[in-house]
Amino acid sequence: MIKARLSITQALDISIDRSDDENFKHILKVVSAKVNAGHSLADSLSAFPGVFKPLYIHLVEVGEASGVLDEVLFRLTEYMTKSFGFRKKIKMALVYPGVVLSVAAGAMIFMLVVMIPAFAEMYRDFDAELPTITLFVLGLSEWMTRFFWIQIMGILLVGTACYQLYRKPAIRYKADRLIFKLPFWGGILLNNVIVRFCQTLGTLIKSRITLLNALSIIHKSENNLLVKEALSNVLKAVKKGSSFGASLKNNRIFPSIVLQMISVGEETAELDKMLFHISDHFQTEVDLKVETLTSVIEPVLIVILGVILGFLIVAMYLPMFEMMNVIG
Questions:
Q1: Structural domain of residue 92, as residue ranges?
Q2: What is the pLDDT of residues 158-195, one digit of tens each?
Q3: CB under 8 A, 24+ apart: contacts of 45-51
């Protein structure tokens, strides 16, 4: 709409009419009122930091100051669309195994708490000597049934304690360092950091934000403490006159190929283009890893679930087979 030479207030009013979300419609009305009162669009958007992130605000501010707001908004749309799609893939890679394992755990708990106690009653009436694996499963079922709520409370307490510990900077820093060392998932998460960093920095630099300001924006929005510390060191080094590539090398967060490509981009004055190349490369790598993960982990988890449930079923039916042999 701005590219079609409508005013910002007209564009906002049309956006309000087209919005189906009542909460977002209210936000746009407040933004529109602020703009009508003489505030800049960036200043009006900054009243809602939970909706419009610092990156968004800074880019809009630059677009307004340089008279290319329409270009900046198109760039933001492209950046946010890519980021959303990539985050979705990362979540799928991390959440999918958890969902399958949760279903498996739910099935086992259902068998141990609901189905197996019925078998226990039946075997008590038979008053026969039971196989060892049957006794083990019956004992496990009895323990889970008797102390079910205590176990639930224990899990909740442990989960709460772990969450509170993770909130402590020292523990969180070690956890963030350990995450990158996890087999397979560590590589996916590191690639996620590289893609997010290169996409964001490339978008900021392309929008004519200085390297120092761009690094400062990314540093403020970064959640991983290990990466945050590295960016803090890079910022200090760049302020003292070091090159961006050399500052990154000293912190050893990213692989050598990333550092080399950034150095080349810096030397050829095409850092934004090089950052987008890096982002595309590692995004493709993550896509392949996620596809591999989803294609391999499903049959593996199904086999594991089948073995566990099969063990429980055999343990329950084994006494019946033995009684049938004796009768035969």
A1: 74-328
A2: 988 888 888 888 888 888 888 888 887 788 888 888 88
A3: 51/24, 51/27
